[in-house]
Amino acid sequence: MPRAVSADRPRSKPKLGQHFLNEEEYARRIVEALGDVSQSTVLEIGPGRGILTEQLGKRARRLIAVEMDRVLAAQLRLKFGMHRNVEIIEADVLAVDIDSLFGPKPGLGRPGIEIKPEPVKVVGNLPFYITSDIVLRLFKFAKYFESIVIMVQREVADRIAAEPGGREYGVLSATAQLHARVEKLFTVPPGAFSPPPKVFSAVLRLTMDPQQQRLGVVGDGFIDFIRLSFGQKRKTLWNNLKGSYDNSQLKRALAAAKVKPTARAETLSLEQSAAIYRALREQQAES
Ligand code: SAM
């Protein structure tokens, strides 16, 4: 005889972070936060049952939606098969080849004449279990994107938007603010999803506004430096960096940037981190 399931038995964790938005009004507000997409390519991450896809398909010039769940991807293909502007890709968004999706295509245009690819807008109600990985990966390909509108766990939104000096400021905040202007738009309660998550969600708009040129830190090295600086959050800057740099160079770089070795990475503005990084690079170039 089947046993009754106890009401307080813990619910199994939803597969692939699948909390589907079920309120059209929130979907409309998320899509509208992208602005006019009638002339844009939109990349949707994790379309799920298609609540955002439906609205985007009607508005965007071109929509590419990447869904990892095989069954959902097949259902979406059936649903949007007649929409010539919608392409469903069954893939892990962390593995998708973004360069070949959005980079210049060989054979396009005449030799020597580069056709600038059109800027892409990104949108998604992101799966919680890989939110940070997705956000950091998007910034790796920031040159292709114009803006990113994402729904994430509210605490993660707070971390992305955090100012230096607070406990929440970390690699995610520094990376996001190095590339973009961050706006927290609105929160969404658990009841707007099926199944409901345990936490509130929040919608962020990240409008690309690259700071690397202004800070004199063009290239990937600065992000690696930021990661090292935050290494272990409780440690001082000195302790996080001393294993990776010549200690006398590091001492001089901190002095040149007027930063105490006992400071912690979360207290530094991007300008201060950039000053340390530039001073280290100059010394390495001289030695
Ligand atoms: N956009 C839908 C909505 O708002 O109802 C679904 C959002 S749900 C929070 C996250 C979606 O991302 C799910 O459909 C899930 O299958 C998909 N997903 C999870 N991991 C993924 C990955 N690595 N790559 C692509 N999609 C993924």
Structural account:
With 287 residues, the protein is of the alpha/beta class. It has 2 domains: 15-210, Vaccinia Virus protein VP39 (Rossmann fold), CATH 3.40.50.150; 215-286, Helicase, Ruva Protein, domain 3, CATH 1.10.8.100. It is built from 12 helices and 9 strands. The strands form 2 sheets. It has a 7-stranded mixed β-sheet with strand order 4-3-2-5-6-9-7. It has a two-stranded antiparallel sheet with strand order 1-8. Helix 1 packs across helix 2, helix 5 packs parallel to helix 7 and helix 11 crosses helix 12 (270-286). Residues 1-10 have low confidence and may be disordered. S-adenosylmethionine binds at residues 16-21, 46-49, 51-52, 66-69, 72, 92-94, 125, 127, 130.
Strand content: 15-25%
**The CATH architecture of the largest domain:** 3-Layer(aba) Sandwich
CATH superfamily of the largest domain: Vaccinia Virus protein VP39
Radius of gyration equals 22 Å
CATH fold node name of the largest domain:
Rossmann fold
Q: Share of helix among residues? A: 25-40%
Oligomer: single chain
| Name of the level-1 CATH class of the largest domain | Alpha Beta
Strand element count: 9
Small molecules bound? S-adenosylmethionine
- Secondary-structure class: alpha/beta
**What's the helix count?**
12
Strand count, sense and barrel status of the largest sheet are: 7 strands, mixed
Name a few traits of the molecule.
two-stranded antiparallel sheet, about 20% strand, Rossmann fold, Helicase, Ruva Protein, domain 3, globular, binds S-adenosylmethionine, about 290 residues, alpha/beta, single chain
